């Protein structure tokens, strides 16, 4: 039995004046002192404590759909509707590299080790691994399964998993560039992640599927009533965290043993949470309502 706690809007800090339009993506730097957020109007770097704008990163011709910090916290990787992946310096705000080769909008990003190589997925149905120094891709996977909606790497980056519009969850080995396993979950996969010997997938219909790669069997399914799943992330401390199109974020400590969430983060009034980022005990969410919400999870169960 799990004790459920709600972190309501009055327990959060809201940043309301950064973007004029919906905020599609957000990431917290490894040191937790900087935030990068992306939307239709801009790509911004700002202070995580008080929301003070530090840099506007210019270069994308259309909406910026994804943004991620490099491990150093001094470089930002972004992907846009203009089909490009870009590398920006946080210190100068300048675009250092433009990676061109996709034929559709960028849907997700991954960073390998310190960032010499990065990865991107696209609505063109492919995933590409890029060499940032040479500004060219070194390998491309075409899964022939419709849009690739999500991309997630293991911590050592040896493996990655994608979720596709056609409902496939596909696991690949970077060392051989080969597909290890593919499985159709029968609903559009909006997010997929690898955790040890399992992958977790979220669907447009609000279902979370857990698959055991060792036994090649589906070990659990959870049907939620929160709308589409927009992102999944696993943390050792809080378990599986999922954001939803109804404006909530929930943490499931052991979804294979219990369907109950232990934490629920509210504040958005039925507006979808498009992205979230968590570092240690700090969680940031980006929402269609143009508001970034910051939650402090420290001592939440005390």
UniProtKB/TrEMBL annotation:
<keyword id="KW-0677">Repeat</keyword>
<protein>
    <submittedName>
        <fullName>Uncharacterized protein</fullName>
    </submittedName>
</protein>
<feature type="repeat" description="WD">
    <location>
        <begin position="57"/>
        <end position="98"/>
    </location>
</feature>
<dbReference type="GO" id="GO:0000502">
    <property type="term" value="C:proteasome complex"/>
</dbReference>
<comment type="similarity">
    <text>Belongs to the WD repeat PAAF1/RPN14 family.</text>
</comment>
<feature type="repeat" description="WD">
    <location>
        <begin position="99"/>
        <end position="140"/>
    </location>
</feature>
<keyword id="KW-0647">Proteasome</keyword>
<dbReference type="InterPro" id="IPR001680">
    <property type="entry name" value="WD40_rpt"/>
</dbReference>
<dbReference type="InterPro" id="IPR051179">
    <property type="entry name" value="WD_repeat_multifunction"/>
</dbReference>
<dbReference type="InterPro" id="IPR036322">
    <property type="entry name" value="WD40_repeat_dom_sf"/>
</dbReference>
<keyword id="KW-0853">WD repeat</keyword>
<dbReference type="InterPro" id="IPR015943">
    <property type="entry name" value="WD40/YVTN_repeat-like_dom_sf"/>
</dbReference>
<dbReference type="Pfam" id="PF00400">
    <property type="entry name" value="WD40"/>
</dbReference>
